[in-house]
Specification:
The chain is of the alpha/beta class. The chain is about 50% helix and about 10% strand. The strands form eight sheets. The chain has a seven-stranded mixed β-sheet with strand order 14-16-15-17-18-21-22, with helices on both faces.
Length: about 1100
């Protein structure tokens, strides 16, 4: 039966007529019965037989054709993959997917709609995905392995790691040791058990204090491997990777002592930095403004200190009172609070130095600069750091390096050997030198003391672990913690990953799995090279070198085979000791062993090995080795062993392609096939590549994350987005090559309706399923990787292969970015455009800075009243707005918090070579985000007013209302333009350092009077002079950068905001005696701010200082409006 109609029926004889019927003289047989035999003649009988035979042949042919068609239609359902891998993959996909969703509308929901429900997020994690789920599985495996009995058959190294685990788990032994291990290490680092600042006698002493801080830093580095104040490392020369050199610069490495996990560590560091940068300034503000420095909010009690300060206070008190039973902080915490405040101040300064150093060498093209790497001898380094403290000198580097290399197998000659550094690192070291020169050694000592105690405390008693847990929980808002057993297993895995991976390795992997992964990677490389050959914007020479680098790229898959050899494994870890009762000593011993090995690699030929341990669920690309590392831990479900190569290529295949593409992204393209850093692309190719950058930056920058209430940073995530897009295309075309050479695959059970190309994309989508809290989404904005949902959306938006495979109409795939829809029409050759992601993109703008600020708030703020953020003018600072901010805060109804900020290159905010209104607006938005402010009212004066306008026009969602004091977006004041002429004079002024601040200002006033004729302007400029404790006179602004960017400030970028409107409340206050805001321009201003009001005051440009009372009343009246 087909469609309910008989295909062939044999009629019953009794129901049929025996003779044909006639119709219009023509005989026609309506039904022919094979049982009818004609009797008229032999001819008829023969003819009849032929007819019957022919009909039978036709019928048989029809049946055969039908069977063939039906067999083809059901082929997918009859040729199924029924292996356990296919069954598992199909079951898991069906559980995760939401097939009610059109894949062309929302592919993430289609592939991951039910994943969070099927994979509940553990309370100890703020985000959860396949990577963390599989890593937890590895952790449980490692724990089970470490819990096994120690046997004589175990290699010596395995016996040691099992002993390390037992020591970590022995809480009774930890309690018995108490805090004595911390005291022992303080002695080893030449640090006092009770820092001078916490010693009542020494803290108040005015006698010179001796402290060899360089010696302590060296010992900490050699024993803990931890950078404090100075960054030290030994690594390959970037321009000659065959030899190792010493590197000096910004501190990079914290201690490798076990922590919950790397993700938690990053989040804690971020929140700690945020808390420290939020620390309220007090007495310094008063002194700078001529006040007494004694204000009602100038000191903090222990109970009101921020969470990090309270943590320092509690742990420091516990350690000091353990070291000296005669010390008792319970009666009075004043000395402790004062010391903690100094730690916060030092940490804040170091953050600022690091940020200034990071910004100093950034370019618009990329984060790397061939000329940034410096090879210096120690004498030249000393000369450069002394420049900031001249005519004094602070000898550091020869002593530091000599002590560091003492006892190493290789000697360093200070007179002839060179170290590696960079322009950014030199700037940091200069700032650090100046800071050390001007600081009290007691404060430096306590900062170093705390840095050590902070690292060691969590590995001692239950009381200190509880303090640390509460501190962490208050920072990153976790709902629970992992068990002690998993904590210990993870810690040992981090410290001795190769040894722990002994439990993962097998001969079977080497014989069966590695060859298949090698073949897949070979196909991906072929696909990559085919795509490169089709590019028309890359010149032939560059193309040949790119292909050469691709073929030269090495791969490390699974694990190093020497792990399986007990003798070699024991030899590798020779020198490590383990004791079941001394947990902290065990851990530190491993770090010391590591550091000793590192020091012995100086000047030796670098033998690049594995970028990570085999137990790590991830994959890596090492630029200087031109190598991809794929640990065995990631070669498991759901990344691999999925039954069908369509699924394998969609999962691990795209990861392999991602890592291969990193070799040619905005960082990888800087290194040639040998791993040396130099320009091997032609200038023309680089120019073409840079010109194509904005497509990806703007596309991903257009994705808004509701839980984070912000947009993805397209510049920050650019390199990973390039690798994602390239990896998908390469893996897809590699799977095509596999199919061509191996034929079609069977169907996946339950997915017979999908083609194998569709299964490829479904597997890729499943890779990025995740479950995340709103807080984790905020952290994700600072990651170089987009959240999984947006990684998937971005890549598939750019994939014509995906659209074709799922039959999506042009434009039906959600793009969420108006720019990119326009870009698809703009570029005629879409495939050509997408190919560039396989080679490289690279333009990155500098990150926003974290602005310094002073907050004013009362106790009667209720609800979610938006705070008022005050943005000052050129050459000013938050200090000039202190009294006005307080007046506004005290009179605002309902009560509002008022926050005065320092814009970049002013006051206490970091310096940056970039200074445009776009940057200022990004800083404001970043400030709101860092302080968890959803929306704010903005008040800006002059240049600050322009920054406020730009922010409101570009980021209206974060602006409640604006007040602009004497600033206009339409024209530029002639008075303002005249300021450009004073910069050369400001740069050339020299003052005798022996003069007082008042005498210095008088001297400057005389020197500047010939250039600045306006008395008020002259006094204003002189307010920004400050004198360091070392006697140097400094401007409060970055004069050089402001001069360079003056035209950016003088002219408002009207073209950037043409077509934008801010439709919220806006008040413009104009000084009638000023030319900064002309009444005649107000109608033009209303084109951008339709609800703008204009208030005239009989004043000059500085309305808020000429008529402070009237100005405050005007502002308060406006912000009090509902």
């Amino acid at each position: 039966m087909e469609g309910g109609t008989p295909v062939w029926v044999i009629p019953e004889p009794g129901n049929q007529p025996r003779v044909p019927t006639a119709n219009n003289g023509t005989s026609k047989c309506t039904i022919v019965s094979p049982f009818l035999v004609a009797v008229q003649s032999k001819f008829r009988r023969k003819y009849y037989h032929k007819v019957v035979f022919a009909i039978l042949i036709v019928i048989i042919l029809i049946l055969l054709i039908t069977i063939i068609i039906l067999s083809f239609r059901t082929r997918k359902s009859t040729n199924k993959c029924e292996s356990k891998e296919c069954i598992r993959a199909a079951s898991a996909l069906l559980q995760s997917m939401d097939m009610s969703v059109d894949p062309c509308d929302d592919f993430y929901q289609f592939t991951c709609g039910n994943w969070p429900e099927e994979h509940p997020r553990p309370d100890s994690l703020t985000s959860y995905d396949w990577f963390s789920e599989r890593q937890q599985r590895i952790s449980r495996h490692v724990r089970k392995f470490l819990q096994q009995n120690i046997t004589d058959q175990d290699p010596v190294t395995i016996r040691k790691v099992k002993t390390l685990y037992r020591a970590c788990m022995d809480s009774e032994a930890l309690e018995k040791l108490g805090l004595q291990p911390i005291l022992d290490y303080l002695k080893a680092f030449d640090l006092p058990l009770v820092p001078a600042l916490l010693n009542q006698t020494l803290a108040n002493s005015t006698a010179p204090y001796e402290f060899d801080w360089i010696k302590s830093l060296v010992k900490i580095k050699k024993i803990l491997g931890m950078d404090v104040l100075i960054g030290f490392d030994i690594f390959p020369d970037s321009q000659n990777r065959s030899t190792n050199k010493i590197g000096l610069g910004t501190p990079e490495s914290g201690s490798a002592l076990p922590f919950n996990d790397e993700d938690h560590y990053k989040k804690v560091k971020r929140e700690k930095r945020k808390i420290i940068m939020e620390t309220v300034e007090n007495s310094d503000d008063e002194k700078d403004e001529g006040g007494s420095g004694e204000d009602e909010d100038s000191s903090q009690s222990a109970s009101s200190m921020p969470v990090y300060s309270r943590y320092i206070l509690k742990v420091s008190a516990a350690v000091v009172m353990y070291a000296d039973s005669n010390v008792n902080f319970e009666a009075s915490t004043d000395i402790l609070v004062s010391a903690v405040e100094k730690i916060i101040a030092i940490t804040k300064e170091l953050y600022k130095y690091t940020e200034e150093a990071e910004n100093i060498t950034k370019t618009e093209e990329n984060d790397y600069n061939y000329d940034d790497i410096l090879h210096l001898d120690l004498a030249e380094l000393q000369k450069q750091t002394d420049e900031t403290v001249s005519p004094k000198t602070l000898p550091i580097w020869e002593k530091f390096i000599t002590l560091m290399m003492e006892g190493a197998a290789v000697k360093f000659n200070p007179a002839t050997d060179q170290i590696l550094t960079s322009k950014a690192d030199i700037r940091y070291l200069q700032l650090l030198t100046e800071f050390i020169m001007e600081s009290d050694l007691k404060s430096i000592e306590f900062f170093i003391w705390w840095s050590v105690v902070d690292e060691l405390a969590v590995h001692t008693t239950a009381a200190l672990r509880q303090m640390h847990y509460e501190y962490m929980r208050s920072l990153i808002k976790t709902e629970g913690s992992i068990s002690r057993s998993l904590y210990c297993a993870n810690g040992i895995n981090n410290l001795m990953g190769m040894a722990v991976s002994y439990s993962l390795v097998s001969e079977k992997f080497l014989v069966e799995t590695r060859p298949k992964v090698d073949l897949m990677l070979s196909n991906i490389r072929r696909a990559f090279n085919n795509l490169v050959e089709g590019i028309n914007w890359m010149d032939e020479e560059t193309k040949l070198q790119t292909l050469d680098k691709s073929w030269s790229m090495k791969s490390l898959i699974g694990f190093p085979e020497w792990i399986m050899n007990k003798t070699t494994l024991d030899s590798f870890y020779k020198g490590i000791e383990a004791n079941e009762t001394t947990h902290l000593n065990n851990m530190v011993g491993i770090l010391t062993w590591r550091m000793k090995r590192k020091l012995n690699t100086l000047k030796r030929k670098n033998e690049f090995g594995w970028a990570t341990s085999p137990s790590h669920v991830n994959a890596f690309h090492t630029f200087q080795a031109n190598t991809i590392t794929v640990p065995i831990a990631i070669l498991q479900y759901p990344f691999y062993e999925l039954g069908l190569e369509a699924l394998n290529y969609g999962a691990i295949g795209t990861i392999l392609g991602h890592e291969l593409t990193h070799g040619f992204d905005d960082s990888g393209r800087m290194f040639d096939k040998m791993g040396n850093m130099h320009q091997w692309w032609s200038n023309k190719t680089i120019e073409e590549y840079v010109n194509r950058t904005s497509c990806f930056v703007k596309q991903y920058g257009g994705y808004y994350i509701p839980d984070a209430e912000d947009y993805i940073n397209g510049e920050l995530t650019l390199g990973e987005n390039i690798a994602d897009n390239g990896g998908l295309r390469e893996a897809y075309h590699a799977y095509k090559l596999y199919r061509q050479e191996n034929g079609p695959e069977p169907a996946l059970p339950g997915f017979e309706q999908f083609t194998h190309e569709q299964l490829f994309f479904i597997s890729f989508g499943n890779l990025w399923c995740e479950s995340a809290t709103p807080s984790s989404m905020k952290y994700a904005l600072e990651d170089t990787h987009c959240p999984g949902q947006y990684r998937l959306k971005g890549v598939l938006t750019n994939s014509p292969e995906f659209a074709k495979t799922f039959g999506c109409r042009k434009g039906s795939v959600k793009m969420s970015s108006k720019f990119y829809r326009n870009a698809l029409q703009k570029y005629q050759n879409f495939r050509q455009l997408m190919t560039i992601n396989i080679i490289s993109f690279g333009s990155r703008k500098p990150k926003p800075i974290s602005m310094a600020y002073r907050a004013f708030e009362g106790t009667d703020i209720v609800g979610n009243t938006a705070p008022l953020v005050v943005v000052h003018d050129l050459f000013a600072s938050k200090r000039q707005w202190k009294n006005m901010s307080r007046a506004i805060q005290e009179n605002a109804k309902p009560a509002r918090k008022v926050i005065a900020v320092d814009i970049r290159n002013h006051g206490d905010s970091p310096h940056s070579p970039y200074h445009t209104y776009a940057h200022l607006a990004e800083d404001i938005v970043n400030f709101l985000k860092e302080n968890d402010i959803d929306r704010a009212a903005l008040l800006g004066h002059s240049v600050g007013g322009r920054a406020v306008m730009y922010t409101a026009l570009k980021y209206p969602q974060v602006v409640e209302r604006i007040i602009v004091a004497d600033g206009s977006p339409i024209s530029t004041s002639n008075t303002f333009l005249q300021l450009e002429s004073i910069f050369p004079r400001l740069k050339s002024i020299t003052i005798n350092p022996e003069l007082s601040i008042a005498e210095g200002r008088d001297t400057m006033k005389r020197q500047l009077a010939k250039t600045i004729h306006n008395e008020a302007m002259l006094d204003f400029v002189l307010k920004n002079i400050k004198k360091t404790e070392g006697g140097r006179f400094l401007w409060g602004q970055n004069i050089h950068v402001l001069h360079t960017n003056f035209k950016n400030m003088a002219h408002f970028p009207i073209e950037d905001v043409r077509g934008y409107q801010y439709r919220g409340p806006a008040l413009f206050i104009s000084g009638s005696k000023s030319d900064f805001l002309k009444v005649s321009e107000f109608e033009d201003i209303k084109r951008f701010f339709p609800k703008a009001e204009l208030q005239l005051m009989d004043s000059g440009h500085d309305i808020h200082t000429e008529y402070p009372s009237e100005f405050a009343k005007t502002v308060v009246s406006f912000i009090n409006q509902s």
